[in-house]
Amino acid sequence: MRICVVNPFFHPYDGGIERRMRKIGKRLSDHYDIHIVTSQLKGTERHESVDGMEVHRLPSRYIRIYNPPMVFSEGIREEIREVSPDLIHFHYRWAPGYTRAVASFLEEVPVVFTWHNSFGEGSGWVRPLSLLNDELFKHYFAKKCDRIICVSDYVKRQVSNRGVPEEILKVIYNGIDLGKPSRKEEDFILYVGRLVQTKGLDVLAEAMKEVDEKLLVCGKGPCSSEFKSMENVKLLGFVSENKKNELLRKCKFLVLPSKKESFGIVLLEAMAVGKPVVASHVGGIPEVVEDAGLLVPPNNSKELSGTLNTLISDDELRSELGEKAWNRAKLFSWDKIASQVKEVYENVLSEQG
């Protein structure tokens, strides 16, 4: 059985979508002949094998006005046709060329789509464009798919409330590679993620004025200016995967004060090494954390600073939540997630007769 997974980006680009594709694809390559159709990033081969998957990279150009950039690839439909798939699994809503190419197969090949982010995600000038994009995507593409995988119940409710039939929606969470719980602690708390408005960094900066602890900030983006001249905040910029994991193992806890969040994969990354988390009670975050961390109302710097100070000062509470976090992370193993995706494929294919 041949599966064609389509997304404008793939390894070595290492975003959340691309990591999910690779983790699941690696596990399912023992069961299916998996082909990835994607853009050709600088320095990559046109064709290569990655973790048992055949990768087809297309000549592309990029417009870097946002992260990830807009992408325009050549010959998408033709490459999918050459793969001759029994099922197509698509992952991306913001590259019209890719959407049109996959849509052209809707009447002849079963199509599964994974909805990774909030409906109309974004803020400022991006928000109205994102809403328009998602409305068009929903109407002309999503409703016609055989199945839509949602990364949280929150995303499923959003998509269902927008008129996508509930019977084609299936929740399959993001996964994690479970590490050994870390007992190390150094004197800092940690933020990891893009430095954009939806992550609540203005709220975090205000809260840190009342917190006597060092905050290390990993990531890049326009909101780095929120922390300007703050002595207890250190901006590390982009860090490697190894460095990120090292910091997660050494921090007292992770903080994610998002204003919107469909899932929050970095929360799982911290929980998987036994670190507690402080996060906003928004979107899919409560589904991930449950009682393994402390949740605060979004956009409330006073509540956030109080919660940060509570966890900083209480060694026993950090230890208790860290143990709960590690046990909670066990439920999100990539083996379980891949098995659930395989079940979706089998169900969709069986429906074709």
TrEMBL record:
Residues 15-178 form the Glycosyltransferase subfamily 4-like N-terminal domain. It comes from the Archaea. Residues 182-325 form the Glycosyl transferase family domain. It holds the Pfam family Glycos_transf_1. GO terms for molecular function: glycosyltransferase activity. This is Glycosyl transferase family 1. It comes from candidate division MSBL1 archaeon SCGC-AAA259E19.
